[in-house]
C-alpha cells in the first residue's frame, strides 16, 4: 500500500477531504464538493426539463437553509449554463412574531446578495388573519393544518400577482422520503403515487411547483450553506411542529445513520410504486351522469366534477364549491365573532389577561 | 489526568437548548485523552439548561442522528466520529438539521 493521507479527496486526489457524501460515501474536498453538488442539480434540471429560456420563476423563500441554498445555486447555474430564466424571490409572511419577522429580514438580505426582486405576500393581507391570531383562536394543536393550507394558496396567489406560472421550493430528499414514509404509514395511497413527482400541479391551476433539490440530502444542503458561508436563518417555528412528521423525521434520521443511502432508496421506491386501479364501490343510488354527480365529503365540502372550478367565496381555483382555505377561515370567523362579544361584555379586563382567558375557552 | 480546551459552536437552531449560547469554550478533563464523546457529556453537564433536553443532543450514547458535527470544519465522519481525540484549540461545531428549511 502506498502511504497516502487517508482523508484525501477521492475526486481530485490533491486536497484534504472535508466531507463524506451520504449517498455514496465518497470523500470530497470543498471545491470538488461544490462542483459535484452543483452539477448534479444542473443535471436534474436538464433531465427533467424544469425551465425554458425566458421563463419567470419564483423561488419560495423562507430565509431558511433550503430556500437560501436554492436561491444561491439557481443564480449560479442560471449564469453558468445560460438557462435564461428570470428569478424572483417570493416570501410568505404568516404573521408569527419572533419567527417569521426575523426570517423575513434574512430574505431581505438575500434579495440584496443575489440581486433578485422580492415579493412578500402576507396572510394578513390575503385572509385578514395572522397565524398568531389564528393560534390564539384555535389553539396550537391545529396550527400546522391552517398554516399549510393557507401557505399553499398564498404562494399561488403571490405567483399569480407577479404573472409567474412556476414556483420552485427548497424541498430536499429528506423531506420527500419523509413524505413517502408518512403517506405509506397513513395508507394514503392517493398521495403516495404523486409524492415523488419533481413537478406537481393542482388540477385546473395554472401554477406548477418544482423541487430541484429532490435528490439532495439535507446534510449536503447544510454543508453547502456552511462552506459557502450563506446567510440563512435557523430557528424552529414558535408553534409545535406537525407531530406525525416529526416522528417520521426521527425515524428517517435513525435509518440514515445505519444506512445512509436509504433516503434516496425510499424516493426510488416511491417513484416505482404503481397502484392498482381502485374498484368503484357499488352504490345503492342510481347511476348519474358525470356532470350532475356531486359528492358531499365528511367535512361538509361539496365536490364538483369539472376541473377548473372556482371557489364561490374567494374565486380561487378549487375542486370544491368552497375552497379549503375559505372553509377553515369561515370556522375561524365564527370563533372571532364570539371573542368580540366576550370582549365587549367585559371592557374593564386588561387585554392580555383577556387574551389569556380566551385561549382556554373552547368552542 | 488529561485536559484540553476547545471551542464549541451550536448552530442550526441548536442554541435554544443551551440558553441561546452559540459559542462556548469548553475545558474537558478525563483519565484518558478526552474525545468528542467526553466533550458531549461535558456539554450536557455544564451547558444544557433543561436536563429534559438531553435527548435532543444525545441518543444511544452518541450525538443524536440529525445533528451534523464538524471538527475544524471537517465532517466528523472523516475524523473518527465520537472517538476523535480532542486537541487544544479545536473548533467543534454542532449543527441541527432537524429544523425546518
UniProtKB/TrEMBL annotation, chain A:
On whether Cell membrane is a keyword of this UniProt record, the answer is no
Annotated EC: 2.7.7.-
Q: What class of enzyme is it?
A: transferase
| Principal subcellular localisation of the protein | cytoplasm
For this UniProt record, the keywords arranged alphabetically read as follows: ATP-binding, Cytoplasm, Nucleotide-binding, Nucleotidyltransferase, RNA-binding, Transferase, tRNA processing, tRNA-binding
Recorded metabolic or biological pathway in which this protein acts: tRNA modification; 5-methoxycarbonylmethyl-2-thiouridine-tRNA biosynthesis
Gene Ontology molecular-function annotations: ATP binding; nucleotidyltransferase activity; tRNA binding; tRNA-uridine 2-sulfurtransferase activity
Residues in Cytoplasmic tRNA 2-thiolation protein 1 C-terminal domain copies: 309-339
Q: Which GO terms describe its cellular component?
A: cytosolic tRNA wobble base thiouridylase complex; mitochondrion; peroxisome
Q: Where is this region: Disordered?
A: 277-301
Q: What does this protein do?
A: Plays a central role in 2-thiolation of mcm(5)S(2)U at tRNA wobble positions of tRNA(Lys), tRNA(Glu) and tRNA(Gln). Directly binds tRNAs and probably acts by catalyzing adenylation of tRNAs, an intermediate required for 2-thiolation. It is unclear whether it acts as a sulfurtransferase that transfers sulfur from thiocarboxylated URM1 onto the uridine of tRNAs at wobble position. Prior mcm(5) tRNA modification by the elongator complex is required for 2-thiolation. May also be involved in protein urmylation.
What's this protein's name?
Cytoplasmic tRNA 2-thiolation protein 1
Organism of this sequence: Ogataea parapolymorpha (strain ATCC 26012 / BCRC 20466 / JCM 22074 / NRRL Y-7560 / DL-1)
Taxonomic lineage of the native organism: Eukaryota, Fungi, Dikarya, Ascomycota, Saccharomycotina
TrEMBL record, chain B:
1-thioglycine found at = 101
Q: Subcellular location, in the record's words?
A: Cytoplasm
Judging by the UniProt lineage, the source's domain of life is Eukaryota
Cellular component, GO, one term = cytosol
Give the SUPFAM superfamilies listed for this entry: MoaD/ThiS
Q: Tell me where the cross-link Glycyl lysine isopeptide (Gly-Lys) (interchain with K-? in acceptor proteins) is found.
A: 101
InterPro entries in the record? Beta-grasp_dom_sf (IPR012675), Mopterin_synth/thiamin_S_b (IPR016155), Urm1 (IPR015221)
CDD domains xrefs: Ubl_Urm1
GO terms in the biological process aspect are: cell budding; cellular response to oxidative stress; invasive growth in response to glucose limitation; protein urmylation; tRNA wobble position uridine thiolation
- Keywords (A to Z) from UniProt: Cytoplasm, Isopeptide bond, tRNA processing, Ubl conjugation pathway
* One Pfam family here: Urm1
Please classify the protein's predominant subcellular localization into one broad category. Answer: cytoplasm
Annotated pathway: tRNA modification; 5-methoxycarbonylmethyl-2-thiouridine-tRNA biosynthesis
UniProt PTM comment:
C-terminal thiocarboxylation occurs in 2 steps, it is first acyl-adenylated (-COAMP) via the hesA/moeB/thiF part of UBA4, then thiocarboxylated (-COSH) via the rhodanese domain of UBA4.
A Gene Ontology molecular function term of the record: protein tag activity
Function of the protein: Acts as a sulfur carrier required for 2-thiolation of mcm(5)S(2)U at tRNA wobble positions of cytosolic tRNA(Lys), tRNA(Glu) and tRNA(Gln). Serves as sulfur donor in tRNA 2-thiolation reaction by being thiocarboxylated (-COSH) at its C-terminus by the MOCS3 homolog UBA4. The sulfur is then transferred to tRNA to form 2-thiolation of mcm(5)S(2)U. Prior mcm(5) tRNA modification by the elongator complex is required for 2-thiolation. Also acts as a ubiquitin-like protein (UBL) that is covalently conjugated via an isopeptide bond to lysine residues of target proteins such as AHP1.
Give the family, as the similarity comment puts it.
Belongs to the URM1 family.
Q: Know the name of this protein?
A: Ubiquitin-related modifier 1
Q: What is the lineage of its organism?
A: Eukaryota, Fungi, Dikarya, Ascomycota, Saccharomycotina
